[in-house]
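Each letter names a residue; structure tokens follow underneath. Both lines appear below:
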Amino acid sequence: MNRLLKLEEAGLFLLSVFLFSQLPYAWWWFLALLLAPDLGMLGYLFGPVVGAATYNAAHHRAVAVVCYLLGIMAPATSLALAGVIMLGHSSADRILGCGLKYPDAFQHTHLGWIGRGRPSAGQAP
């Protein structure tokens, strides 16, 4: 099942590449902005609850889709670009095993625990 989920994420990443190709930007913009959603991690400077909220807002697929659709309908290509970047980035993150964050710890994601020092089964963080 894990392989199937990663294939699904790869498909969504490729969709983001295709959607980007329909926008009037040079390809280097895609590469330059692909890590921009990780700026949501800055919220962790204010604690794990704020950090999880800002991180999740920058990595949530529904936010990405709404940005893209509003950008296409407006038309506001920069908003569509933001949506495409968010979709591509979140898909790449999920291929690597990083997911949306719980407010208790950065390493606690909806895909499970990531990194070193993760709690054993049945153990609290």
Q: What stands out?
A: DSSP finds five helices and three strands in the chain. The chain has a mean pLDDT of 92. Strands lie at 101-102, 105-109, 112-113.
